[in-house]
Amino acid sequence: MHFQLAAPAGLDYAVNRYRREAERHYQIVEDHLVGREWVVGSGYTIADMSLWGWIDRASRVMHGAADPLGAYPNLKRWFASVDARPAVARARAVGSDHAFKTERDEQALRALFPSNYPPAA
Predict the structure, then answer these.
(1) For residues 6 and 112, is the Cβ–Cβ distance under 8 A?
(2) Radius of gyration of the chain measured on its C-alpha atoms
(3) 48: how many CB neighbours lie within 10 A of its CB?
């Protein structure tokens, strides 16, 4: 996501390289979910919870795609099942009562990408 959304323009190699890597990972999960309802075993587990957090970002990972999970029907089905759980609604509400900073000024960029700046004197 960094190269697609935050890095300077002109890094096409990096954008494509990491986009293809994300697609490769999605395909691994897609293939694993053939004939399965959940990631591990016959019920919802911590593996599903963990994977949900990554797949929830598919629209950012697959930046610009009309249907980010469209090429992965098993993954899309699985995600919809997890996403419909009441605990997901509670998780999404965490922090909703806090006004997070949205400006990408120098202070924010230094916090997000400290390796791009020299150490403070």
Answers:
(1) yes
(2) 18
(3) 20
CATH of domain 2-116: 1.20.1050.10
Domain range summary for the chain, segments of one domain joined by +: 2-116
- Report how far residue 36's alpha carbon sits from residue 41's, in angstroms, rounded to the nearest whole number: 8
Question: For the whole model, what pTM was predicted?
Answer: 0.76
Burial of residue 26 (number of CB atoms within 10 Å: 0-12, 13-18, 19+): buried
Q: What is the pLDDT along the chain (121 residues), one digit of tens a residue?
A: 555 565 566 667 766 788 788 899 999 999 999 999 999 999 999 999 999 999 998 988 887 889 999 999 999 999 999 999 999 999 999 999 999 888 888 888 888 888 888 887 6
Q: H or E element: which one contains 110?
A: helix 106-112
